[in-house]
Task: structure prediction
Amino acid sequence: MNSTPSSPSSSSAFDMVSSALGQYIPRGGTAAAAGSADSQGDRTARLRVHANPAPGRQEQILGAVNLDSDLRITRCNLDAPVFAGLDAVAGSPFVDLLPPGDVPTVTRRLRQVLETGEPHVARVQRLRRSDGSELVVSMSILAAATPQEGLTVSLIDMAKRLHLFAAETAIGTSLDIGETAQSLAESLLAWGDVAAIDLDFAVWTGERVTGQPQGRIRLRRAALVPDRAWPDGYVTPGDDLPSDASRLLSQAIQRDDAAQAVVIPDREAIERVLGSPQLVRALVPGGRAAAVACIPMVLDGTPPVVMGVAEVWRRADRPFDDSELLDLQELVARTSHHVDLARQHQREHMQVLALQRRLLPRTGGDTIETASVYQPATPDSAGVGGDWVNSFPLPDGRTALVVGDVVGHGLGAAATMGQLSMEARALLSAGLAPDEVLEHLDETVTLLDDADSGLAVGYSALGSTCCIAVYDPVSHRVALSSAGHLPPVLVPPDGPAGPLAVRPHPGLGAEFALREPFDVHAFAAPPGSLLALYTDGLVEDPAVSIDEGIDRLADAVSTVHPWDALQQAARQVVSALAPVRRRDDVTLLLARMIGYRKGDTATWRLPARDDAAARARTLVSALLGQWRTRDDTRDSVLLVVSELVANAVRFAGGPITVRLIRSGHGLLCEVGDTGNGRPRLGPNGLLDDGGRGLHVVHRLTSRWGVRWTDTGKVVWAAVAR
Result:
């Protein structure tokens, strides 16, 4: 740009502004200041000032432009390095420096000041550089003493301050590590041609990086801008840096004192540091970028913790000066805690995901098919919601279906969710009925929310809901209990779909309500029936009532064909019903009942007499012959049935029920009675006859147990085929 010296006798506003701002604008010692250098000499001088700032000199951010009545530039004083690239040529229109969209407004302001003489002060304005980039300035328009002298426009560079503020605000908007690193890299691009963020690998896993790293550092590239096609071998986001790359970065990270920025000024120095053409291809961006500033990402502490390094690359003919390094370090320092917050969120997120993976429904087996869908309310809360769903086979051949909605989100809700889910599974596997399990869960939630353990940490699970259904594949019936949960939807094979008439009950731990016992709703579910359990996020919509939402779910589930893949059908149901703007997590569990074939089960009722064991052996032996069971399996089953029936006759009363089930894994023997005592496997001496029957059962079976019924208990035992 050209700079024309003013006349000593002139008293224009331009001269007064230049005089007032003279302490910030380079004067003397350069051809540009003298006004006798050509454009190349002016640029060289500016670079020299930029590269070697005088010690203690304030940052040069001020300039002035004089305009005539036609709004053309007559003189300018924009020698500060920050204004490099502004083509303020004498005789050219001032509006050529403006973005096209700002030309009408600024022109109107300029003419208004020219006509009225009233100044226009501190307008935030963008100016275009010759390379297409923009400079943000605070622009003031001043009128000259006489209209013939035109206008003086003073410019104060605001880009760095505004950029630092805007960058810090934008970087803290996401809890995703990759997005946070990408925002930081995009902000750093204002100081260079290429910006990259490399993080310690432990940050990606959510681990805390403590102390000074020992040896070489494992770094992973988290962000790289601009987005373009990079050559083969160059490290892009998601790639681990070569192990030898720590030679370039160790000076910034591995220090005994406070971590500091390191600048390598040219390509030759970089190649000497790297010492390998392979590393040069992996780390040095192509084109003219040949200088790099490495700024460590440090968390305050004792000692300070370094999470990674930010790299800003640019051309060697634009060396980094002290003020720029201070700005870079300030921005990285201000935003490093955002990366740490994202790391903490990543750690919590991975913990909850690991927990939820443990809670995901397992395969239903031969008697039931299940499919589930979970969608979080927002992407940032993925895997950290309070909804949970589970289905698992019980040891006695039945299948449990469980869905719940824990109050709140985050790690506290996830911990409660995991505890309730595991407790429900353990109690159901121990043979408790769904209503008994909910009673235990109700007590658990109450205990979790006492003053010492729950409310003291700021989280309450009171009011959480849960629904438990247990499917018996032999009787083709389901026993269901609910604690404050929405009613499941049943689609029978030969009838209309609709919600089950489940009696409402308060949520878990609802001490303000009357503590009534939980009900058990039993209903038939013949083969081909479809049962849908869900959470309120699937059917709640501000535009419709909750009952209408449940009816829409029943209509959607009723369209599932018996031959449709259940997992795909579950996704389609959720896609059709889930609100576009979700306020809560969405969970759906579909269960298609299959059951056992009639020829794979047999049930007998026997009186509790001394000959009951012999009678049971005869009946079971005949059935095993029809099933063509192997002799060794047949002998084991007969002995197990005989012992279980004998124990039932000896210790219980009333009629005895014997049931035999053939499955793909083996044979399941069940003996039911009206007693309420629990058989226990205790120590047994060599000459002690008491309890020897259970020891025989224990040795001959793969597993055995007890479940409780309304009339007594059932002792079951599984024998492998």
Notes: The first helix runs from residue 13 to 20. The radius of gyration is 39 Å.
